[in-house]
Sequence to fold (207 residues):
Amino acid sequence: MINKFSIDRNSFLTKRITGYYHQLYTGYGQAGNPDFINTLKNTYNNAPYSNLLNAQKTIIEIIHHDLLDIIDEENLTNCLIIGVPRAKALNSYSQKQLLLKDAIKKVAQNIRGVFDGTDCIIRTVNTKTTHIKNPVNYVNDGDDPYPGITVETCEINQNIVANQNIILIDDIYTKGVNIDEDCIQALLDNGAKNVIFYSIAYTRRDS
Fold:
């Protein structure tokens, strides 16, 4: 059963937002942890392709199932699904590092009333990759999260976003990082009718 929570307003976000998540993220390698998320990130672009496809298949099944529950819970007749962009400029990633975006596209094609918005937010300027604390052989350039970072480092297609019910998808939500909060606010500022947040995993950083 899908889990529901609230994202509270703060300096990044002007209103409380309804959020959902599939399961807890307890730490890489821990029993029951969704390590397939780390596989699909493919941060160092060295994961075997077969492992990536298996991870993507798992994630497609999870997102598809959970979106149906969210759509039912929120009484949505149609919605636009958008993925939170990765930290670096889109053109710096290989296709094997963009398989979450591809998974969201595939889900959108298979649910009636759901439309693909994965190209509505495109990162053009590098930002700090927040989940890498001590990078080795990885250039982690760019700014840490600050209010407005999404608008200032991304191209947002306002023509498509405006007046839409949006489900914003990320792989992991961690309270206090504020990347997701800022992305939600960017969509609201660009005219979104409503934004619901969904992540595959939720980190209890605040506990």
